[in-house]
Amino acid sequence: MRDVSVELARVLEGGQFETSLTLDVFYGAERRLQSLTVDSSWELRWVKSADVPGAGSVLVQVQMPDGSSLTPREFTARLAPFGQEAVPLLTIRAGHFSETVQAGRFRIAEVPSARDEQLRHSVRVITVGSYVKLGLLDHLDAVREAGFTRPEKPVHTTDAWQELARLTGMRIVRSMPTVAVPESITYELIEGGRLRAAQEIAAAIGGTLYVRADGALTVLRDGLGTPVRRFKIGDESTLLGLEYAMSSEGVKNEVVGIFEDDERKPIVVPPAQIQDGPLRVSGPFGRRTHYHRSEFVKTVTQATAELAKVLAQVSQMKAFRVPVTVALDPRVEVGDTVELEQATQTYRGVVAEVSWQADGSMTLQVDVYRVIDEANLLGV
Question: Counting beta carbons within 10 angstroms of the beta carbon of residue 295, is it exposed (0 to 12), middle (13 to 18) or buried (19 or more)?
Answer without folding.
Answer: middle
